[in-house]
Design goal:
196 residues, 8 helices, globular
Length: 196
């Protein structure tokens, strides 16, 4: 995983509640066996019309939000099925920070495990940010170390579990954490009995 600390990006306002994982990455795109390559299919049925042409009214297709790495959404983001492909698709598309008032629990945990920072703010704070970003392309500046999101002259503070903060700051996934105990594992393996 890539470490996250400072992220500066235009904010992409996805002003929808209850965005479920099938909307994030539809079931017909789950046949890939790699963890990469899903970004091209993120929000596919919202990004494209039935004939395959881009939906010009959808926020991700608007040029002012191109290259954004901060997605701002509404309540209960990532609900629905527990597919881990949803955070894979979001990250592969280019977002490594999501801002919302609340998340489905499994999606929330999968974000941390895959290198995405899911920031939780109050509904009024998120609605204020959405309104600002919809009115004009606006940069947001995230500092994970300080636990702040700055939009213009407004600073929003967020809470994060210290464990997840440390893993994101260091770019550690669960394999990285295990490897830190490599010496202990090797000592154990050298001492244990072998069976024929």
């Amino acid at each position: 995983m890539e470490p996250i600390n400072k992220v500066k990006s235009v904010l992409t306002p996805l002003n929808h509640k209850n965005v479920d994982t099938d909307q994030i990455i539809s079931k017909e795109f789950l046949k890939r066996i790699e963890r990469t390559g899903f970004g091209q299919y993120v929000f596919y049925h919202w990004r494209f019309n039935a004939d395959g042409t881009p939906n010009e009214n959808f926020v991700l297709n608007k040029p002012q939000y191109k290259g954004s790495s901060i997605l701002v959404a509404h309540d209960n983001f990532g609900c629905g099925s527990s597919r881990e492909h949803a955070p894979w698709a979001i990250l592969d598309y280019g977002f490594n920070v999501i801002v919302a008032p609340s998340y489905a629990d499994i999606f929330h945990n999968n974000c941390f495990k895959n290198g995405i920072l899911p920031i939780e703010l109050s509904i009024p704070e998120v609605e204020e940010i959405l309104a600002t970003a919809e009115a004009n392309p606006t940069d947001g500046i995230v500092s994970l170390e300080d636990q702040t999101l700055t939009v213009g002259d407004k600073v929003y503070r967020f809470e994060i579990d210290p464990y997840y903060k440390e893993t994101l700051l260091n770019g550690w996934d669960e394999i990285s954490l295990t490897i830190q105990y490599d010496e202990h594992i090797q000592n154990y393996e050298a001492k244990r009995k072998t069976f024929a």
